[in-house]
Records
---
Amino acid sequence: MVEDNMPDKKTVLICCGTGCLANNSYEIYRELKKRVEAAGEDISVKPVLKTTGCNGLCEKGPVITILPEDIFYCKVKISDVDEIFEKTLLKGEIIERLLYLDIKTGKKVKSHKESEFFKRQKKIALRNIGQIDPANIEDYIQRGGYRALKKALFEMSPDEIINEVEKSGLRGRGGAGFPTGYKWKQAKKINSFPKYVICNGDEGDPGAFMDRSVMEGDPHSIIEGMIIGAYAVGAQKGFVYIRDEYALAVKNVSRAIKDAYGRGFLGENILGSGFNLDIEIVRGGGAFVCGESTALMASIEGRVGEPRVKYIRSTEKGLWGQPTVLNNVETWANVPVIVDRGAKWFSSIGTEKSKGTKVFSLVGKVNNTGLIEVPMGVTLREIIFDIGGGIPGGKKFKAVQTGGPSGGCIPESLLDLPVDFDSLDKAGSMMGSGGMIVMDESNCMVEVARYYLKFLSEESCGKCTPCREGIRRMLEILEDICAGKGREEDIKLLLELAETVREASLCGLGKTAPNPVLTTIKYFKDEYLAHIKEKRCPAGVCKELTSYRINQELCKRCGVCAKKCPAGAIFSKPKSPYVIDNNKCIVCGACREACRFNAIEVMGRREG
Ligand SMILES: Cc1cc2nc3c(=O)[nH]c(=O)nc-3n(C[C@H](O)[C@H](O)[C@H](O)COP(=O)(O)O)c2cc1C
Ligand code: SF4
Ligand code: SF4
Ligand code: FES
């Protein structure tokens, strides 16, 4: 497995992940197909056309890969189809315009694998995505899929499988990094049936799309992992919990389950082994807290999705009070590779306590946004500046937020931190499920903390008072600070509240909710002080503390700012630089974003 076998036959892989679909990639597929079919005898070797899951570079989409030459085209339009057919498919010529520009080297590359974005990645969980048609089980099998299942069922005992997973060092990819093999061992040793396995595909973090991409692009890898896990712990029923908004994930996982039944990988007497397993999909309603293990189980049971106290572990009494193994999408997708290639191989990748790779959705103020998979232990600097290609527009890096809404903001001084479960924890953040949001000098860190606390206060289920009331109280203080009404004692009060919320909340939501506040106070206290003492927002974000002015010397009179202004607040007299009417300005920042000459200056708040 983790095979990279390129077909000898000409194959065109057209990305039809959610990002590319939104930019008409399916129409491109249809047009190209029509063109190939209409060519008849004109074309000696007809290419095979396949739709695939997300290649990770959605921002450059729609993307197309042509094999075996491995030509990678980006931002393809329907109007490019004829040229791709005539030049590349018929004559083997490369269309320079459509090649990927590697920001790091400034050069166009023929194959995306030559770019810094891809070269530094290692794909295990994402091994097949972008290479196979997720709706075609044969594609998965051709790349080694279901080989691990056969090995598990016919060459290994359940205990041997659990030992292998334990030895591999695999830790759960859904947030807490709990050792997967140990969790399975606990569920296996309870002699109470039925037992259940669950795949957590809730993925409620704003900006995250790792699990969605795996469910959409390689659903069989999850199903194969779940069958192996179920066999190991003695479960005969599995659920894939997918958030309702993920329509394509639901469609592709449903299709994969149906095809797996059709090939005898699911159902009764799997492949003649005597082992039975049924898997079904449950659609989650979209509440962030339903990603928490016990809330998720309550939701599957048809109860309100509220967490419970975990003095009894779910491996002992989980779904309907029975032993249950719940793992994240990415965790399950790693399992077949571990069984196939062995624990020794897997544990040779990563750091001492964090083995293997981790998938991240790299977003925010970074040149190459997208889905990446890196060996544990690479530094934040490598991810942001080598893979991500640095910060756009020549701006300065300020912070990176890892771990989803209740993760923390890590400053520039810690950019050489290795990315693993323990180092991120130590820095006051966490791995979480893999959201990574890059921020530059134009982000206000007080406002960032306020944004996450607002999200968490709305998503708290309200069951316990410290979380329900504590987060709301912290949010009110942050809103005051952002509005210029902060008091000097507010920082101390925030720290005290954070401590109480962390200590006294029932589930992980409340326990980790203070992280954005604590890390921004720890690493960006000067920004809090500027808001509180000087009534100034240094980043020029908080509306009540900010006004803008156009620097008359830097303004080149291009008029771009005036075109972008939604309030009609920018005007100019003939042959003069542009000016902002502060009575009309709503401080949206659109002009500042748009100006290529950095002529929009941030000023303090306007009095009166
Ligand atoms: C508020 C909250 C939301 C969570 N959301 C998710 C989620 O969307 N997906 C996920 O896999 N784990 C989520 N988790 C973590 C799960 O509770 C659980 O630890 C995880 O799914 C276990 O799988 P793993 O061991 O493979 O990581 C969440 C936890 C909390 C506290
Ligand atoms: S900590 Fe918050 S989200 Fe968790 S149970 Fe308590 S109120 Fe609900
Ligand atoms: S900040 Fe927004 S409203 Fe104000 S001048 Fe600029 S674009 Fe117009
Ligand atoms: S959806 Fe096509 S690259 Fe992500």
---
Amino acid sequence: MSGFDRSLLDDADETVRVRFTVNGRKVACEVAPRETLVDCLRNALELTGTHAGCEMGACGACLVQLDGQAVHACLMFAVQADGARIDTIEGLTESGVIADLQAEFHRRNALQCGFCTPGMLVNAHELLSQVTRPSRKDIRDALSGNYCRCTGYEAIVDAIDAVAKARSESGGVT
Ligand code: FES
Ligand code: FES
């Protein structure tokens, strides 16, 4: 084919070395330029608590914290996160910062299949880091990008509301 540069095809197969700090540990991965962050976390780093649902930014299953802010890992290429600090549901669990949220979700049956739960928890953690005592409407608004096919949301909102109340009564994060 005249005018076609075959080296472009070779470039498309190349991998790029990226470095992150994931859950407090420095890691390096070889990724294809088109590989998403969620695929890199799940496949290369075996952090399968971050779920891939819609893969188009709609369902919230893939939320992780990037430099302290919740982002959709399905909407980012892994190379875009080079040098960043990433906290996944595994890291937030190990650190204990969401232990009260997890206990309340469990106590109130705020999950069934659990597919949406890591994203719900990442989002709830971000909300409660920013707003000490959100209203139920604030909680519903914050969760508007997190889809749950199982629970009907009521117990999820109840759980987050209860943790917000308990934290504000105890003067902060428990
Ligand atoms: S998988 Fe990322 S928002 Fe649905
Ligand atoms: S618990 Fe099944 S999708 Fe939410």
